[in-house]
Structure formats: structure tokens, C-alpha cells
Design a protein that fits this description.
globular, single chain, alpha/beta, three-stranded parallel sheet, 14% strand, TIM Barrel, six-stranded parallel sheet, 305 residues, 38% helix
Length: 305
């Protein structure tokens, strides 16, 4: 099996130490003045991540939010770090007025094209479909986008990663994507679960077979980061260490380490990983940073190219 990186197909076993959820480039209407759009700053962050032992970063920035795909390819080529780009669509409020209404009728077509032909004229193919739910429920926008994502997943085999608003509604997402739309649970990555630190809920989700992503440390997630290890412990003790992913989720210029206040992408390895090793052991840390990403981000099934 392979992972589709910005430089082409990569054998999954070569992905290496992975930040499973982050952003090198991101521009949202909700974060004016905090755009991640500086290619030099992004490259500096990637070099520092590599110096800490990192080998791959999965980008969760979807369609229309400033992905700078050509810059991703250049950074990957210059640094040797594997990068995965995303297609998909975020919650409507992240976009300028009118854009969502314009693209909604052809979402599946857009997703498939970016996965199989490339993002714009960059020639860089996405390897991930990023979509978003609502707070505890799936509104009409979320349902339309997720149905399109399921269609694109069936056509391409690409994994689907979900932003859960404050970590909620992951059960409703699985109901729609897996039970109603027939997406294999192992092709679904449930994100931001650290923002909803309900151990029982996490165990219910893990039992349904999807991957669970915990996206701290992050300046945006600071209120729930102290509960991260308790959440992980409950799942590891229940035998679900093979479903867990970790990411930094850097979404603002302020949160970058290279040019802002941090903690930034490198902290995932310089700060969090040593604590994981001390708490759970080196084998568990390797599962979360190496083994699980190599299974979560593969393209499954026949892909049109």
C-alpha cells in the first residue's frame, strides 16, 4: 500500500515519524491577520521538525484555504520531509462569502480531480479528504460535504479526515460515512478528540474501527491538552493503541515555533514524545508516530489516475 504525498506515491512503510495533523499553510476568514502564508517560515518549521527526528507531516488544509500546493512540493523536495496535501471542504464560516454556494454542487468532482489530477495547475495531488462536522450535530452543510467526500473516497480510495467542532459529533459522522455511505471505518480519521475528553465516548468510537486523532499540543487546544494523557491511557489500556494518531494542529502564525510564540510543529517531538515514552514506553510511542500513520493515510483500493 502507498501514501500519496505531494511528490508522488510513497510505500507506506517509508512514511516514518509522522505529525498526523498539522498545517503549513492556512488562511481562514475566522483568523484575520494570523494567516499561515509565508513559505520561508513554513520551510523553517519543517527543518526544525526534521532536526527533532520528524519524517512526515500530514496537512489538513482543504480546498479554498490557501494550501499553496506548489510551495508544499518545493519544501518537501528541499527538506526531504514527506508531505501529504488535502482536498475537501471546511465549515462554511471559514470561507469568503459566496464561495461555498459556488462549489457545493460539484464537490465530489472537485475532490476526485484534486486527488487524481492535482490541485489547480500545481500538478500536486492531494492524498487526503478533509471535511468538518458541527457542534454535536451535522448541519446541512456538513452532510452535503460528507456525502461528497464518501463519493470521492469510493472513487479514489483516499482516507477521510474529520474536523469535529470542539471534538463532538464523531458518532454522527460514523453513522453517515460508514453506516449510511459505506466507507470502510479504517478509511476514516476522527480528529480533535482531545477537545471532547470523554473517555467512554472515545472507547465507543474506537470500537467502531476508525482512527482517532488527538491534535495537541496546540495553542488552540490548550484548555484540553492537560487531559490528553488520560484520554490516551484509557484507550491504550483498552487495547486500542493501534487506532491512535497525534498531531500538532498549528493553525495560526502566532503558534509557529520558527517565527511565532510556539509551540509549533517541532514540539510534538521535542516536548510531547519524550513524555509519551516515559509514560507509556517507547513501543507505544512508535505505534502512535510511525506504525499507525503508515496504516491510516494509505490509499485503499483501486484509484483512477
Amino acid at each position: 500500500m502507498t501514501v500519496r504525498t505531494v511528490l508522488g506515491e510513497l510505500p507506506a512503510g517509508e512514511l516514518g515519524v509522522t505529525d498526523s495533523h498539522d498545517h503549513l499553510f492556512f488562511r481562514s476568514a475566522l483568523l484575520p491577520g494570523q494567516e499561515l502564508d509565508d513559505a520561508d517560515a513554513a520551510a523553517a518549521e519543517v527543518r526544525d521538525f526534521k532536526a527533532a527526528g520528524g519524517q512526515a507531516i500530514v496537512q489538513w488544509t482543504p480546498y479554498g484555504l490557501g494550501r499553496q500546493a506548489a510551495d508544499l512540493a518545493k519544501i518537501s523536495a528541499d527538506t526531504g520531509i514527506h508531505l501529504v496535501a488535502a482536498t475537501g471542504l471546511h465549515r462554511a464560516e471559514h470561507y469568503p462569502a459566496g464561495l461555498v454556494d459556488e462549489v457545493r454542487p460539484r464537490l465530489a468532482e472537485i475532490f476526485v480531480r484534486e486527488l487524481t489530477e492535482g490541485i489547480g495547475d500545481s500538478g500536486v495531488k492531494a492524498g487526503l479528504i478533509k471535511v468538518a462536522g458541527g457542534f454535536h450535530v451535522l448541519d446541512e452543510h456538513a452532510r452535503v460535504v460528507m456525502v461528497a467526500a464518501a463519493e470521492a473516497q469510493h472513487a479514489t480510495g483516499a482516507p477521510i479526515a474529520i474536523h469535529h467542532e470542539l471534538g463532538s459529533a464523531a458518532d454522527a459522522v460514523l453513522d453517515l460515512l460508514v453506516d449510511e455511505s459505506g466507507v470502510a471505518p479504517e478509511s476514516v480519521i476522527l480528529g480533535h478528540l482531545n477537545r471532547f475528553p470523554d473517555h467512554r465516548f472515545h472507547l465507543e468510537l474506537a470500537a467502531r474501527g476508525s482512527f482517532l486523532a488527538f491534535d495537541g499540543p496546540s495553542r488552540a487546544n490548550n484548555a484540553t491538552d492537560p487531559r490528553l494523557f488520560d484520554c490516551l491511557a484509557a484507550l491504550i489500556d483498552a487495547g486500542y493503541a493501534d487506532r491512535l494518531l497525534l498531531g500538532g494542529d498549528t493553525t495560526t502564525a502566532r503558534a509557529r515555533a520558527a517565527t511565532g510564540e510556539g509551540p509549533g510543529i517541532p514540539y510534538l517531538l521535542t516536548g510531547l514524545r519524550p513524555r509519551l515514552v516515559r509514560t507509556f514506553g517507547a513501543e507505544i510511542a512508535t505505534q502512535l508516530f510511525v506504525d499507525n500513520p503508515a496504516r491510516a493515510f494509505v490509499t485503499r483500493g483501486t484509484v483512477r489516475s
